Amino acid sequence: MAEEQKNLIETDIVIIGGGAAGFFTAINLAEQRPDLRILIVEKTLLLLAKVQISGGGRCNVTHACFDPQKLTSYYPRGHKELLGPFHIFNTNHTIEWFKKRNIELKTEADGRMFPVSNTSETIVQCFLQEAQKQNIRIEKKFEVQEIRNLNHKTYEIEGRYAIVRAKAVVLAAGGHAKESQLEYLKTLNLEIVPPVPSLFTFNLPQHPITQLMGLSVAETEIKILETKDVFRGPLLITHWGLSGPAVLKLSAFAARKLHDLEYRYTVRVNWCLEYNEESIRQVLMQIKSEYAYKKANQKPSFAAHLPQRLWEYMLQSAEIKDGDTWQNINNKQMGILSKSLCAMDIPAQGKTTFKEEFVTCGGIKGKEIDFKTMQLKKHPGIFVAGEIINIDGITGGFNFQAAWTTAYIAAKGMADTL
Ligand SMILES: Cc1cc2nc3c(=O)[nH]c(=O)nc-3n(C[C@H](O)[C@H](O)[C@H](O)COP(=O)(O)OP(=O)(O)OC[C@H]3O[C@@H](n4cnc5c(N)ncnc54)[C@H](O)[C@@H]3O)c2cc1C
Fold it and tell me: Which of 11, 182, 244, 356 could form a disulfide with 39 if both were Cys (CB 3.0 to 4.6 A apart)?
C-alpha cells in the first residue's frame, strides 16, 4: 500500500507495545497529564498477553526486596543502570500502586509477591479498566515497521495501514528473540545488544543421572567450568537434566557466555557444601578405618541430606557393589566417590525453557538512555520502558519490577517535559 493511502492518526503520545510496560506508562502518564492524548499500538490482537500467562497464571508482580541496592543484584544486566531508578520507584511503590487500586499483594516464603486473588486476571483487568477510565486509545493489529524523528519535536511511526504522528514515542515493545525483529528501530541508529535467551534449565542428553528424575537436594553449589560462574541453592534432577533456583540463576548470569558456547559446557556440582574433594576424601578414609565392616550403601552421617538413590548412584559410578563394605573399597574408588560428592562433572548440551518463562538478554544498550527520564539521548522525544532495554532479571518478579520502574520514570519524564 502506498504511503499516501495510509490513514494518518494524530496524537500526543504513541506507545509501541500493549504489554506490561506499555500499559503502566500509559496509565501513569494519563494520571499526571490528563490533557495529553495517549495511544497504545499493539501488533497482536492480545493485550497484556505475558501478564496474563505470567507466574503460572498468578502473575508474580514483584519481589519482597525493599533495598534498592540489594534489588539491583538480581539483574545480571542492568544492575548499575537500575540503581537510580529504584530510588524513585521500587517494590514499595509497586505495592502502594496496586493497593491504591484495591489490589493487595501477598508474599510467599521465597519472597515472590502475587495478587491475593492468586490470578493474573486481577492485574490484567486493573490495567484494562484504568486505561478505559483514562480514555487511553488502543489500536490492535498495528505492527510498527518504522519510526521517524521528523524534527526532534514530531515523530512518526508507520504500520502497515496507518501512520501515527505524535509529540513523543514510547518504545515498550518487550524482548525480541531475534535481532532482525528490531529492524523497525534502524532509523534511530541505536546500539543494540544482540538478543539471546535467559532463564532456562540445563539439558543432559542421555546422562544416567537423569534416571534419578524427581530428586532434589536443598543445598548444592553449581559451577559452570567454562565460564567460572557459580551459585548455591537447591538443585532438582529432571527427566531432561538439571533445574532449580541455582540453575536458573546460572542460566541468567551466564546467558551470553552459554550462548557463545552453543550451550555445550560442563556443570560441576558439589553435593556436600561443607567439604571439597580433598577434605571429603579424608572423611571417607576415616570412615573406612573406623567402620571397615559396615556396608557402604548405608549412608554415612555427612551424606544424611542426600537422597538414598543419589548416594547409590555415586557408589555405582565408583563401581562399588551393593554388598561391599568400606574395607573392600580401594583408593581409586575412594577418589571417584570423593569427586562425585564434591566435584561431580556433568556435561550439558542444550537448554529447556523453564515453565515457559523466559526473558531476553539483550536489547537497547543502557548508554543510549538517560535513566533519569528514560529518554533516548539521541532522540529526546523518544522514551523507552521494559524488556526492550538490555536489562533483565532472574526469576522471582524482578522482570516486572524493572518494567514498572522504567515505565513509571518514562511517564514522569514525559509529564515533566511535554
Ligand atoms: C511465560 C512467561 C511468564 C513470565 N512470568 C513472569 C513473572 O511472573 N514475573 C516477572 O517478573 N516476569 C515474568 N516474565 C517476564 C515478563 O513477562 C516480561 O519481562 C515483561 O512482560 C516485559 O514487559 P514489556 O512490556 O517490556 O514486554 P511485553 O509484556 O512482552 O509487551 C510487549 C508488547 O509489545 C508488542 N510488540 C512487539 N513488537 C511490536 C511492534 N513492532 N509493534 C507493535 N507492538 C509490538 C508485543 O506484541 C507485546 O504485546 C514472564 C515471561 C514469560 C514468557
Answer: 11
Residue keyed to cell 541468567:
252
Give me ligand 1 centre to Cα 387, in Å: 7
Cα separation, 114 vs 302, whole angstroms: 38
* Burial of residue 416, with CB atoms counted within 10 A of its CB: 0-12 exposed, 13-18 middle, 19 or more buried: exposed
Are the C-beta atoms of residues 197 and 218 closer than 8 Å to each other?
no
In the chain, what's the furthest Cα-to-Cα distance? 91
Contact present, 165 and 11 (Cβ < 8 Å): yes
Place of cell 489490589: 103
**How many other CB atoms are there within 10 angstroms of residue 124's CB atom?**
19
Q: How remote is the CA of residue 50 from the centroid of ligand 1, in Å? A: 5
CA 398 from centre of chain: 7
Cα 10 to ligand 1 centroid, rounded to whole Å: 26
Between CA 291 and CA 285 the distance in angstroms is 10
Over residues 106-144, the pLDDT tens digits come to: 999 999 999 999 999 999 999 999 999 999 999 999 999
C-alpha cell at 59: 502473575
354 band by pLDDT with thresholds 50, 70 and 90: confident
Residue 162 near ligand 1, beta carbon < 6 Å: no
